[in-house]
Fold these 2 entries.
Entry 1:
Amino acid sequence: MFKTKLIAGAVLAALLGTAHAGATFKVEESAITGTPQNEVVADKITLRYEAQINQTQANPAAQTVFNESGFFNATGFSLGSSSQSTFLNGPGTSGYRIYGLFTVAGSISFVGTTALADFLTGSVQFFADVNSNTGKTLNGSNGLGATTLTNNADDILLGSSNVVLAGSQANVPLVGNQAASGGSFVINYGALDLTATGSAFFFDPQPFYLRIEVSGENESFNPALTPGNYSGVAVGDASAEFNNNVPEPASLALVGAALLGLGLARRRSNKA
């Protein structure tokens, strides 16, 4: 039983680790109005997110579906395990911020001691907050309009995507029928479309990568996530990486099997 859990966990970690191999990219920060010239080499953007989740189940036998909408704030650029020197979130008029609006929708199954979610559709937008003054508040609705923005008239759209690729999944551990903290998620946004400012900011490689992979961990759900109809807010940490590789179907099948193995292993462990 313990061995089964270890094997399933190892398979999942290995596959998600392979899928999360971010490619190196370069940023020229002076593309943002008022920011001094500075080239940043990184392989990920670290993020802090907040999202509204609205989950519905028509009847006990029906599939549970959900919509999740929210925003993220970029906290830094990293290369491997090292934070990079940047004007992002810097003080004074030289500093700027990056934030994003995102949506995902799909289905969720509560299997044993794990909630397994499949993200099927969604969108994401990256913005530069030139004067570092944009306010963001969730308003409980769905879609990109789920976040109310203030002081955003001077913000600059850097890039966007309206495509969610296969392999976008999440697993959340359960205590009883409630979600515990932790769990992991991967959202593969494809067909990245950079604006003119976005291309000057994300200037290397050219053309830029076509896929954004957002992965991370749910820190908390308020109230606790439960089966059936649900409405609440999730917060956590994540990172955005860029790549052109799309997960292969065989790898996706193994990821699903590993996730299921983790859920079954936890269930057997609880019964022992």
Note: Residues 199 and 206 are 8 Å apart (CA to CA).
Entry 2:
Amino acid sequence: MTTIAVRDGMMAADTQLSSGTIHRVQKIFELPGGGCVGGAGDWPKAYAAISWLLGGRQGDSPEFEDTELVILKPDGSVWIACERFPEFPILDDMAAIGCGSAAAMALMHHGLSAKDAVRATCKTDPGSSDPVQVYRLPKKRKMRSEGCSAV
């Protein structure tokens, strides 16, 4: 189980993996070319789908039943993949997946950042727990024009 939230160029995820015992795993991965992907649901299937993306989409895409991915593209757009590719864009400016998604969405609608929403969800959702992993898109640098002066 998992809570992953995306808002304002930031993706945050808990790190709990429940498989009889509780382990910690990385759930957010930086993509080649920028942006990141996070996975929730059946973890071996989510990891296989993430690995396929990280490997440059070589070969047939895996199916990942009972699994969902959220992708934050370098331009800030949010895309979802449910059980198979291709992923699709969503129109919303925030998203959440996993067992804590409803709580995280409600908290973000009340102004919390993705990171704070996941942290708060970890306090009440038994399928999610700290520490929280965070990925932020790099801020775009504004071109600064230097004035020229005659000497």
Note: Residues 100 and 125 are 6 Å apart (CA to CA).
